[in-house]
Write a structure and sequence with these properties.
CATH class of the largest domain: Mainly Alpha
Strand order of the largest sheet: 2-3-1-4
Shape: rod-shaped
CATH superfamily of the largest domain: subunit c (vma5p) of the yeast v-atpase, domain 2
Strand content: 5-15%
InterPro entries: ATPase_V1-cplx_csu, Vac_ATP_synth_c_sf
Keywords: Hydrogen ion transport, Ion transport, Transport
Number of strands: 4
Family: Belongs to the V-ATPase C subunit family.
Oligomer: single chain
Number of helices: 4
GO molecular function, one term: proton-transporting ATPase activity, rotational mechanism
Number of domains: 2
Largest sheet: 4 strands, antiparallel
CATH topology of the largest domain: subunit c (vma5p) of the yeast v-atpase, domain 2
CATH architecture of the largest domain: Up-down Bundle
Radius of gyration: 33 Å
Subunit structure: V-ATPase is a heteromultimeric enzyme composed of a peripheral catalytic V1 complex (components A to H) attached to an integral membrane V0 proton pore complex.
């Protein structure tokens, strides 16, 4: 019975801390998307939707992340990587210390080949689809996960403290019982004190 209670406390605390670790990992991933470099960062606040060819039957815009030191090579060779790349369609969207982000327009039927050739050149194609209000939605999601992380951390801390105190109390009772049993086994049952007879 005591062992079952200890096991239940342990399982509850572990489950809550696992939940907290999952939320913390999600929050770290969202924060990394907000603060990373162009290869990992969310493109929603960076890309102007006017740069993208949308709702076209034949054309498609690709976002390519190029290391800054390979920028000139990209500009010199992107038109010849695959057939049907729209000439002079490269537009620099953003730049940071390590990478430069370009938007390039190609025909849809050669898009896969163009993206494969970019990967071979160690340029990173980024998947991006413009969504109205996407920036605000990302910020709301980040705020929601941050609030949930604080809430679950408080619950986990409270459960950990409660579990620790209950465990300490149970172990104290077990140790007291053990000392009593060992005392009885070693020295025998305590003698009963004779009650003084009432004088008549």
């Amino acid at each position: 019975m005591v062992n079952d209670k200890l096991q239940n406390i342990d399982n509850d605390v572990k489950a809550k801390f696992n939940q907290y670790n999952g939320i913390k990992t999600t929050l770290a991933a969202l924060q990394r998307k907000q603060t990373g470099n162009l290869a990992t960062k969310s493109l929603t606040p960076i890309v102007n939707p006017n740069l993208l060819v949308q709702d076209s039957e034949y054309l498609e815009t690709h976002l390519i992340v190029v290391p800054t030191n390979a920028r000139k090579d990209f500009l010199r060779s992107y038109e010849t990587l695959a057939p049907m790349v729209v000439p002079r369609s490269s537009v620099q969207v953003a730049q940071d210390d390590e990478f430069t982000l370009f938007a390039v327009t190609t025909f849809k039927k050669t898009s896969a080949e163009f993206l494969q050739k970019c990967r071979e050149q160690k340029w990173t194609p980024r998947q991006y689809k413009y969504v109205e209000g996407g920036k605000e939605e990302e910020q709301r999601e980040l705020d929601r996960i941050a609030r949930e992380e604080k809430k679950v951390w408080g619950e986990a801390l409270r459960l950990g403290r409660t579990g620790w105190s209950e465990t300490a109390m149970i172990l104290t009772h077990v140790m007291t019982l053990r000392v009593f049993v060992e005392t009885v086994l070693r020295y025998g049952l305590p003698l009963e004190r004779p009650r003084s007879k009432q004088r008549k």
